[in-house]
Amino acid sequence: MEFESRCVQGSYEPKNGEPRVLPLVQSTTFYYEDADKMAYVFDYPETGHLYTRISNPTIDAFEKKMAALEDGVAALACSSGMTAEMLAILNACSTGDNIISSTTVYGGTYNLFNVTLRRYGVETRFVDPKASEEEIEKLIDDKTKFIYGETIANPAMIVLDFDKFARVAKKHGILFMVDNTLASPYLLKPKKFGANVVVHSTTKYLDGHASCVGGVIVDLGNFEFQGNPRYEELFNKPDDSYHGRTYSKDFGNATFVAKARCQMMRDFGCQMSPFNAYLTNMNSETLHLRMEKHSDNAIRIAKLLANHPAVEWVKYPGLEGDEFYDLAHKYYEKEAFGGMLVFGIKGGKEAAVKFQDALKFLKIVTHIADARSSVLHPASTTHRQLSSADLEACGVPENLVRLSIGIEDYKDIEKDILQALEASRK
Length: 426
Known about the structure:
This protein is 39% helix and 14% strand. The chain is an alpha/beta fold.
């Protein structure tokens, strides 16, 4: 199917007399008529459902849709985007291992990598996304398990140079993982540019209605674990805790997600609920329509702000003159770049507060990427736990205002922003 059709019909095919719409299976457990049949599924979970912590028909259909949208081979739905990141990292890392990450990642991700994972013996080596390949390679040793970046950094609006990071990862046989939340698979496919694993906060554009927290790990099926010494212990040897299965041997090109499900999700139990999978699957049916409208409204607002006297600077990759304009056009599938943009307001933090307080149509919320337009001041909210030095490293100056442009009528968004900008100057 084409992408738009995959959004609508990509993972559920009803049989004769069955519901046309993907049903919500709100059950923790599943019946088997004899002990041997249930025992078989314990050994081979890919053949059926046992317990919703491991798999569930509704969640399974959503996972299959996500794999299809990202041109992957398998997916694992999680309780949040942060959970998806955590499980993906721990899936391939043990105490003493390290990962390499772009500095300009989402504040919650930065804290997970820089503080929490370190407590458990997994080191993150941060690198400027503009660094050369040689500079990235200097951070690699035999314990490096991932190179990680965001398609477009939240909120720094830095577009990832896929080719550069993918070349380094491939040269050294390291997994290349990308957070594709803010582009969505409709606007950009990381697999085309060398990524091996994709994660999403499905809470954002995939749900699109601010109704369901969730995350997903997508295995793109293009990484060879067998014979790779970096992953020998975890992927290429029998797992005594899971019936002696050898993931790289038994699960083929779906190795990464198979291990994440059978081992990580089994032990941590942070699965997406069936109800959230049901709603997110349904809402994702309009992803292709919404992304076009988000993008159309956002570029118009970016141009408006770029010419306003109360604004110092604007960052949006679709805006001519933007530092990442050429890189975005190299990687994005369409002449559309999503609904998030940031700008620097004259007057610093005080003006940012005045601007936010004056808005009426746009709301102050700790969220982005849903149908409704919203605003946030990251330095005092999502990134407030970071030091001044960390804020600088993440590309979040104190006068940065983040706008998530929704799918409402452009005139209403424009009118509210203009009056709030005037209020910020008083």
